[in-house]
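User: I'm putting together a teaching handout on how multi-component assemblies are represented. Below are the sequence lines for each component of a complex, exactly as they appear in our records. Could you produce the 3D structure of the whole assembly as structure tokens, so the students can see both representations side by side? Please keep the chain order the same as the input.
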Amino acid sequence: MWIIEFLQKFLEGRGFYPSLMVIFSWGYTILLVGVLICEIFLYIFKVKYYNPEFKKDVNKKV
Amino acid sequence: MIHLSKHQLFSLMVLFEVGSTSVFALGIGAKQDAWIAILLALLIGLGFVWIYTELQSEFPDKNYVEIILTVLGKKLGIPLILLTLLGCFWHSARNLREFGELIIITVLPETPLLFINFIFLLVIIYVLFKGVEVLARASEIIMPAIVVFMLSLCILVYISGDVDFTNLTPILGDGIKPVLKTLPSLVVFPFGEMFVFLMYWNYANEKKIVRKTAVKAVFCSAILLCTTVVMDITALGAKYVSIATVPLVETIRLINIGNIITNFDAIGVIIIFFGGFFKMSIYINAAVLILNTLFKIKKHNKLTIIFVSIFLLWFAIVFEPSYVFHQWMFPFDVHYFAVVYTNIAPLLLLIIYKIKRKRSEL
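Assistant: Of course. Below is the structure of the complete assembly, with chains in the same order as your input.
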């Protein structure tokens, strides 16, 4: 797989922890961007977000 | 309940920003234009401070972990919290290593690194046992000392006759490209690191002044860092600054006024060390707070502090075989993973929150 070869080359000599951080952080960013896109679509199609606890927390803004 | 005044928050933020950055010549990739790069990074950094404080102002009584859980829920939120925790471990371990090496290079060359780090961590554990308020009160005393020291250093170097302002020329001699190339790393380190205060701002006495205090602190620390870099470059020259292990110490060694006021490096190192102490303490305490909030630990705070400290003592030595490796890792960590939890994640979190809020009002 080209992605594994790329990661092997890119992370060579960097050690376990930084490699873990790179994979974890960018993997998570992709996930979060996906969530953001879903949220935008739900907003465009006017799907109501119902969560009483969230609403309770929201009204505390300074 | 912990309460921090605006002055205490200001001192903590300034010390955190100046912290280990005084050890490096910040933005030296842009050579003699490093100061321009710092000022440009400040502008972008202030934008990110707005994002962090906006997130905090939406949830004034919650810390970052609680904000993440409210906005993203448990399944999506816990990975981000773990990422932030791992980031805090990484930064504190690197700080520990930096200051341990700084002491070995400058004042205690024969002492083992493990022993220096152990003593350093013991002091941090002691302060954290006393609580964040004690740390904040200590910062109120130390912050003016560091600022006065840095400024008097500039004056002493100037009086010694080692300052040559032509070292700053040609301004933008290689064009704007080197400045823009250095910019991303400067935005993350040190300005992006302000995200860690999302774990502290909920302790503020007056929630309304958080943004104003954060902006003031970032601005003041950036000016201080800019002054230090200008002093380093004018005294040593951009080329030497870029290869020196600790440029600030090299600059301090130049001070010689009539062979009377000289050999300042030992005092200088101690003062620099204070900055590192506060930065480390803030990171370690943030990691402890993350663990305590995530696992709902209320009674055994001291145990968490000891656990985190022991882990860092091991981490700082095992994951970085040498100081050369440590320096080699600097642009890598900032570009390829620190940027995610310092800049990208809070920005996405804020946007997702705003959309969810709009959707809940439909």
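A couple of points students might notice: Chain A has one domain: 2-58. The two ends of chain A are 50 Å apart (CA to CA).
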